[in-house]
Each structure stands twice: as structure tokens, then as C-alpha cells.
């Protein structure tokens, strides 16, 4: 990818944004953006934080348009497969689904719970359940998690289902589980043992995945319970690799995680058939092409890059999100209580600062098909994680060539904190 490093002209950039942006005042204003993305097989919807209400609400609005008007048939998110599969059963009216929306969302019980156990997600899930109500089973929209962290939860789900169905693969599942058991369900403990004492469980989880892959390939029709087993087994394989590499440091654990998310997504797409179309909800750092950022210099890849490399041109449409200022849900340390934190005004010269100067209101901007040179310069682009320290803002900006990182961008001028099911600290 081409990177421009010449100094940018601030006024030229502001005028280019002003000339190309469209005001965003209501959900219907996103209709042209949904239509522009409709030809893709993968529409990637980003977020600049995991705790901003408007990012969830605008992604919901776009997802509804794509599902209702363009026949997209699944949403895949940056979440654990087992928890998301509980939601999937709920929205598809599965006989074993949780009895209520709150019960389904309380499946997200691992920190950071607020990412999916929130009121904004509840609105999406309620809509999906109603949308699916009168559809035949094979046409119901699915909801799936792509992340790699749920090693033990995925093992639990595999064993539970194999016991229930009296399946011969249970022996391999129990063997894999017993290998991990001494590590107290702590990924870091396993990673230390695997990396420094060669006490790894790789052979056991790979064997289990092979058996479950073969089982689903032999099955006739669409058996989603078998897909559930297969993806949970895939999680155990790649989580084993992830925790093994994590203690060594470097980019490899990040790359394992994002490669896993792409592999899980591709398997779900194959399950849904050759005409499947997916909407993906993940952080900008995953869906925006890594080659257009400083991640490339650190040998890091991500979902957006991998999909663009693997798919035909036009098959992937990535939409980034950002905000100038407001409030966010985050924590001040890993596994710490969630808080509502202030997001200060964007730094001078950053992409969000330029968007604000171009118009102090919500707006969206198309990069694909535009030839404005200002969009091919490098700008700082804010990224907020689940751990956030507003007073260290300088380190939250990723150098980005915006028109190469995304196909379009949604800007929220003044954002509000997500509404978690568990209230934030005052």
C-alpha cells in the first residue's frame, strides 16, 4: 500500500472533508452508505472504543439496512463464541434458547462484560429476534463471536454437547480438557508452562478439531450444533497457540488472534452457503487495513488486511468510526471495574480534529471512489481500548492513511457512554 508522508495542508484537508462528507442526523441518512456497501460479501463496521453508545447505535442502523434491504444473513462480532452462540440461539428461537433477552445477554459474564452486555446491544438483539420470527430456519440471521479468548468455556461447551449426544469424539475432548486442567483455567498459567517447560496441549486440541471437522463434513444438511462444536474446537487450537505465544511478547499473539477471527468467520460463511454475506463488528484496529497504519512496520496483520488480501476486489467494505469528544465506558486497568470516563477533545492535527473543524456535527464520509489527495496523507487517528487513561492521550493516536485504511468513515462529534447492564462507577 502506498503511504504519503509529506506534510499536510490543514485547510486543504478540512475543505476536502467538507466537500465530501454528508450530514448524519437520523438513521435514514445512512441509506446511501448501506447501498454503497451492499455489493460486498463482508461489510466491516468498526469503532474507536468499546464503550461509545453512538458507535453501537449507528452500526445497528447500518446492520438493519443491510439485512432488510440487501439480504445480509449474519453478524459476527469481537466477542467469545460460546456467549455469542447463546444469543444466536435466542434470536433464532431455538428450543434450548434462554428464556429472555436479559438472560441471553448475561451469558457475557467475562470481563469486559460491558462490550456486549449493554442496552445498545439489547436493542439489536431484540430486533434480530423479531426479524427472524416468521422466517424459515435456514433464512434466519445469525449472531456469532469471532474471538479467541474462551479456551475453557469452549472446552466446556464441546464436552457438554458430546456427552448429551453420546458422541465418540468425547474421549478426545476429555483428553484435551485434562491436559489444560492443571493450569486453573488461567491462560497465562498455561502460556508459561507451554513456553518455558514444554508442557503444551497442542496435539490434543488439533486431534479434537480434526475429529469434529470430519464429523460435520459427514453430516447431511445444515447442523448448526455441529458448527458450534467445530468452532469451539478451533478456539481451543488457536487459544492454545495464543497463550503459548503471549508470554514471549512481540506481534505473534496479536497475529494469531486476528488470523483466528478470519478463519472462524470463513468457516461460518461456508456454513451459510456460497451466497452468504456477513456484517462484522470489531474495533477499528481490527477492521481497518493494518497496511495503512504503523502496525505494518511492527509486522502486525489484522482482519481488514487479511480479508482484503484473500478476497476479490470489492468483496470487502470497511467503515471506520471516530469521535471528537464526549464520554466512554472503560477501565483504568485490566479486569478493573468499569467507569464512565471523559474523552477529551481530539488532539490538534488529528483526523478527528479535522473532521470536527469541517463540521461540528455527526457526519459520514466516503473514501472509495474519491480522488482527494488529502485523504491519502498520514494523520493521527484516535483508538481507545477497554483500558483507557484520558490524560495519556498522545499514545492513543494511530498514524493512518485514512482512504487506504477504510472505504468510508462515520464521525460522531460529541459522543456518549455506552449503557452497560451493570452500572458504571460514578
TrEMBL record:
CDD domains xref list: Ere-like (cd14728)
Biological processes per GO annotation: response to antibiotic
Pfam families: Erythro_esteras
InterPro entries associated with the record: Emycin_Estase, Hydrolase/PRTase-associated, UCP036794_erythomycin
Record-linked PANTHER family: ESTERASE, PUTATIVE (AFU_ORTHOLOGUE AFUA_1G05850)-RELATED (PTHR31299:SF0)
The protein's name in its UniProt record: Erythromycin esterase family protein
Lineage: Bacteria, Bacillati, Bacillota, Bacilli, Bacillales
Amino acid at each position: 500500500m502506498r503511504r504519503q508522508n509529506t506534510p499536510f495542508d490543514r485547510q486543504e484537508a478540512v475543505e476536502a472533508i467538507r466537500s465530501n462528507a454528508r450530514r448524519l442526523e437520523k438513521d435514514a441518512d445512512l441509506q446511501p452508505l448501506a447501498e454503497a456497501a451492499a455489493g460486498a460479501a463482508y461489510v466491516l463496521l468498526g469503532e474507536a472504543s468499546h464503550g461509545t453508545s453512538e458507535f453501537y447505535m449507528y452500526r445497528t442502523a447500518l446492520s438493519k439496512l443491510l439485512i432488510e434491504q440487501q439480504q445480509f444473513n449474519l453478524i459476527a462480532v469481537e466477542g467469545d463464541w460460546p456467549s455469542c452462540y447463546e444469543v444466536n440461539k435466542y434470536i433464532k428461537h431455538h428450543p434450548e434458547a434462554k428464556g429472555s433477552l436479559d438472560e441471553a445477554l448475561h451469558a457475557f459474564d467475562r470481563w469486559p462484560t460491558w462490550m456486549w452486555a449493554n442496552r445498545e446491544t439489547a436493542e439489536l438483539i431484540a430486533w434480530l429476534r423479531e426479524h427472524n420470527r416468521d422466517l424459515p430456519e435456514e433464512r434466519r440471521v445469525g449472531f456469532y463471536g469471532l474471538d479467541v479468548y474462551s479456551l475453557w468455556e469452549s472446552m466446556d461447551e464441546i464436552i457438554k454437547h458430546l456427552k448429551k449426544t453420546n458422541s465418540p469424539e468425547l474421549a478426545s475432548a476429555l483428553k484435551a480438557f485434562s491436559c489444560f486442567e492443571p493450569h486453573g483455567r488461567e491462560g497465562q498459567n498455561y502460556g508459561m508452562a507451554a513456553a518455558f517447560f514444554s508442557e503444551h496441549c497442542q496435539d490434543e486440541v488439533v486431534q479434537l478439531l480434526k475429529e469434529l471437522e470430519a464429523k460435520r463434513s459427514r453430516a447431511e444438511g445444515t447442523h448448526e450444533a455441529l458448527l458450534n462444536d467445530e468452532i469451539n474446537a478451533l478456539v481451543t487450537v488457536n487459544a492454545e497457540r495464543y497463550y503459548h505465544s503471549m508470554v514471549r511478547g512481540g506481534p505473534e499473539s496479536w497475529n494469531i488472534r486476528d488470523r483466528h477471527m478470519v478463519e472462524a468467520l470463513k468457516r461460518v460463511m461456508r456454513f451459510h452457503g456460497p451466497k452468504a454475506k456477513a456484517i462484522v463488528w470489531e474495533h477499528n484496529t481490527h477492521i481497518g487495513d493494518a497496511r495503512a497504519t504503523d502496525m505494518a512496520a511492527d509486522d502486525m496483520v489484522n482482519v481488514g488486511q487479511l480479508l482484503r488480501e484473500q478476497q476479490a476486489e470489492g468483496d470487502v467494505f470497511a467503515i471506520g468510526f471516530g469521535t471528537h469528544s464526549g464520554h466512554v465506558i472503560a477501565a483504568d486497568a485490566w479486569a478493573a471495574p468499569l467507569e464512565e470516563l471523559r474523552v477529551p477533545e481530539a488532539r490538534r492535527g488529528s483526523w478527528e480534529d479535522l473532521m470536527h473543524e469541517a463540521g461540528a456535527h455527526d457526519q459520514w464520509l466516503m473514501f472509495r471512489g474519491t480522488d482527494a489527495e488529502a485523504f491519502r496523507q498520514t494523520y493521527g487517528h484516535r483508538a481507545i481500548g477497554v483500558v483507557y487513561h484520558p490524560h495519556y492521550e498522545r499514545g492513543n493516536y494511530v498514524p493512518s492513511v485514512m482512504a487506504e485504511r477504510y472505504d468510508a468513515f462515520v464521525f460522531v462529534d460529541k459522543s456518549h457512554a455506552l449503557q452497560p447492564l451493570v452500572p458504571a462507577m460514578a
